[in-house]
Amino acid sequence: MILIAAYWLFLFFLALPIGVATIHLLKINSQNTIITLLLGLVSLTCCFTITAFFFPLNGASLLFWTALGILSGIYYRTQVGQLLSGFSENLKQLPSHLKVVVGILTFGALLKSAQYPFITDNESYYIQTIKWLNQYGFVKGLANLHLFFAQSSAWHVLQAATNFSFMTNKINDINGFVFILCTLYCITEGHKYSTPKKMYWLSFMPLAAIFSFLFLDVPSPDLPLLVITPVILHLYIQYNKTNSNFKIALLLFIFLVSIKLTILPLGILFLPGLIIKQNLKFAIFAGVPIALLWIVKNIVISGYPLYPIGLFKTGYDWAVPDNAYNWIVNITADYGYKRTAGLLPKDTTTATKLLYWLQQDKLAGIINKLTLALLFIMPLSMLKDKKHKMVYAALLINFLVILLTSPQFRYFLYITFAGFLFVAAALFNYLKADIVVYKIVMFLGSVIVFITFLNFGLDKLTTNRQHLAHGKISVQQLYLPSGITKYPDMKFIKVKLDNLNYYSPEYNFFTYGTANGPLPCVNSQQIEFLQKNLGIIPQQRTNDIKDGFYSAKTPEK
Q1: How many domains does one find in the chain?
Q2: Domain range spanning residue 548?
Q3: Which end of the chain, N or C, is less packed with Cβ atoms under 10 Å?
């Protein structure tokens, strides 16, 4: 915990001056420290993305951008000082019960981040994606080695660039930092906009914190969508023609799109505001560079500029073959409807798929039904003005798009999360509960997150054997995190496949699993499956793996 706390402090003092410089560059008016920090993370992600095209994200790259942050801090020292002072003052002004909630959630987030990672995707491609970035930067055709690597996110770029991999393999804990930032923002803004008779919807963020705790111990791209989306919606609801809230919300939205494309339909929220010339110019100036970085990154890694959308496939030799692309996209989509390992029959109708989705059990079934219930209830509490109507319409359309493409609950959990906040506030205000009830509810909401540390009952929530056990809490975690993989003792064997020498887990814990294996790492079971069913195998483009990979056809197909 102590090491992670020190890491978060480093991120704080790195992002703050970069955020101030971003505000000046984009001519945004904001005196909020947390918004400035988030904008700093946006700019750092762009800077590290540019770096990764040419260099590995190692100590040299971190030193360079840290030096730039220090110079920015010196140049804008007056404003940095004001932001730090304002941040401290805002925390001091919080009521005692909210200070207790903040303390509990901060302690919980630190302890959760110190545990072994929980989510299976960490063992299939999070660790390896970050490791490739640390050692080589972006690698041409990396998706040919492991199809999941095509999902390389801007969030993984930021994590790779700041994880101190040149000093330790214990830190991939940026999610906890962003969770604390956004929680503080929601609590302080919620307190600001609440009245003795009516609680503002952001005030209920601690009650929904348990959703976030599922993603704190891994660098999952789902977490920033979960906690930054409420910030965006708040800024949108509160903006007017004289402030910069619209621009900030738009920039954060574009940033989230570069992290995970599933949130793109939420962008309809901003279309009316882009009629204003000033907003449109800002969208072009700030959004186009981020979009270009995202497109070029996709081209390098998979050969598909808009991945996971298959349009405009390039003709480069490292572009993932059509059959491999179609297979991974189809299996991902079908898994959202029916959580099985194989593809649904081609003649399965949309109605049947939706019925499968509705009948899912365990955690997926709970989230699916909860989301539907929230979207049904939300109009009763949100349709009070034009902006709230737009927020509801955007969330609903975003959900429907995901529902008709690949409705895995992680893909729309940020919609569930935001909807829960609105409905909780509406119910609380409708019942005219007093402040004592609110204090009790917030305290219980912050304490209940510790359920995520326990192993009991997991078999009732999931059939995935990778999710049936958490790492145990230990004294060591108070000062040193457990590590970046739940399989620290996993052994790997070296395998030769024509011109490719790769490492495969000695024990096949699941087909796509790679854990923290040495590069290049891919599970032999996955290679054999693709060779048998698609007639392709990964090969190096040259004798040096930094030159990338392509998919070669096998003689059998």
Answers
A1: 1
A2: 492-553
A3: C
